[in-house]
Amino acid sequence: GQSLEQPSEVTAVEGAIVQINCTYQTSGFYGLSWYQQHDGGAPTFLSYNGLDGLEETGRFSSFLSRSDSYGYLLLQELQMKDSASYFCAVRPPLTGNTPLVFGKGTRLSVIA
Amino acid sequence: EPEVTQTPSHQVTQMGQEVILRCVPISNHLYFYWYRQILGQKVEFLVSFYNNEISEKSEIFDDQFSVERPDGSNFTLKIRSTKLEDSAMYFCASKMGASGNEQFFGPGTRLTVL
């Protein structure tokens, strides 16, 4: 089976940098994704790491270390609109239709 | 920009009734999913669908659940006899191809079972 651990809540100041960690235990692993979900909204894709290292997409970066079964999402220059829940999700071994396994989510609150 | 759509946005039903949740995936996508999210909890996988058949299903997806792609555009989730614990937000998602990493989620249907 798969399990993912991430902090339940994080609070950060507007303009600051915040890192949301995710550790996983899986019976197989293909990649780690990050999704953002605003209250009442749908999860939206932020980033994906299939290989070790850092992926950067604008203000958001994501990192993966397969050997440590660990990844993180880094949000820079925080804005109030970044207040949302952030989920890490594991993609199990590759078959075309493998579903995502989500963590419990980290609720980020950005304060002025 | 193409998007996944779902109807209805909110469905209220009595326990024991059947409900059908509808989704229209992005038109050139080949892989389809249903997930659910109980209020305040994580997103949970229900079922995946490809080439007109179920690829994988979770323990949640028992005999009360079924999926169908009745035509070239719709993808439906049926719950035969709803229970109180089926109350949740149900998300449909689609993905273009096998190697794709991004699943596109619809806005969800909030199901309330009374």
Question: Can you put this structure into words, describing what you see?
Answer:
The complex is a heterodimer of chains A (112) and B (114). Chain A is mainly β. Chain A contains no helices and eleven strands. In chain A, the strands form two sheets. In chain A, strands 2, 4, 5, 9, 10 and 11 form a six-stranded mixed sheet that branches. In chain A, a hairpin with a 4-residue loop joins strand 7 and strand 8 (70-75). The radius of gyration of chain A is 14 Å and the shape is globular. The N and C termini of chain A lie far apart (40 Å). The model of chain A has no long low-confidence stretch (mean pLDDT 91). By secondary structure, chain B is mostly beta strands. Helices cover 0% and strands 50% of the residues of chain B. Chain B has no helices and eleven strands. Chain B has strands at residues 5-7, 10-13, 19-24, 31-37, 43-50, 53-57, 65-68, 75-79, 88-95, 104-105, 109-113. In chain B, a hairpin with a 2-residue loop joins strand 5 (43-50) and strand 6 (53-57). The radius of gyration of chain B is 13 Å and the shape is globular. Chain B starts with a strand and ends with a strand.
Low-confidence spans of chain A: none
Spatial extent as radius of gyration of chain A: 14 Å
Order of helices and strands of chain B: EEEEEEEEEEE
The fraction of residues assigned to DSSP E strands of chain A is over 45%
**Which oligomeric form is depicted?**
heterodimer
Mean pLDDT value of chain B: 93
- Largest interchain contact: A-B, 26 and 25 residues
- Poorly predicted ranges of chain B: none
Largest sheet of chain B: 7 strands, mixed
Shape descriptor of chain A reads globular
Strand/helix succession of chain A: EEEEEEEEEEE
Number of helices of chain A: 0
How many whole angstroms does the radius of gyration of chain B measure? Answer: 13 Å
β-strand percent of chain B reads over 45%
| Largest sheet data of chain A | 6 strands, mixed
Q: Which structural class do the helices and strands of chain B define?
A: mainly beta
Distance between the termini of chain A: 40 Å
Which percent range fits the helix content of chain B? Answer: under 10%
Number of helices of chain B: 0
Q: Report how far apart the termini of chain B are.
A: 37 Å
